[in-house]
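Here's what a typical entry looks like (Response regulator):
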Amino acid sequence: MGGPVTRVSVVDDDRMLLDGMAAWFSSVEDLVLGRRVRTVDELLADGGPAADVVVLDLLLADGSDPVRNVRRLVETGSRVLVVSVVPHGERGIDVVRAGAVGYLTKDHDLDVLADAVRSAAAGETVHSPELAFAWCRSDRPDRPQLSTQERAVLLAYASGLTLATAARQVGIRPATAKGYLDRVKEKYARAGRPAYTKVELAARVREDGIA
């Protein structure tokens, strides 16, 4: 076996899906399917890490809360990719804000899922079409409406640039960039999601799919 291997666990109550995934993953060298369980409680029963990446069904038969499920799995150090038969991606916003790296509907084929798992394992966010569409259409009050310049400064600064470098990239003066960034922070604070540091702002960029 050549490169690094990603350990994958699956939480889903669809037995046919679990069996199908097991057969399919057995032919993929860089992805090793470990535990296949029906609840998060079952996966975490031994208290150990769940896996490098956990593929989690949004709505489980035990009625557990999807947001809480994601948070519990993230606490183990796993990266969580949520999948669902629900076509409306608005639910995806909730689970990504809870710490999931992305959201896919189950009408995608297994090649797409495998690529999403690889992206998750590499530390990337999985921007599926469903999630991107939901973010673009979302008008929730906790998702501040940013101007074009506010968005540009936020993206540049949250990517790791200094404020001066971010200002130069956007084509404005540092003092002007600071004003835009201060307004971004104020809008997030008013929305009940304060973000004062670069790390917190970067988290808001990921949560809200700002691009």
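The beta strands are 6-11, 31-37, 53-57, 79-84, 102-105.

More examples are in the samples folder.
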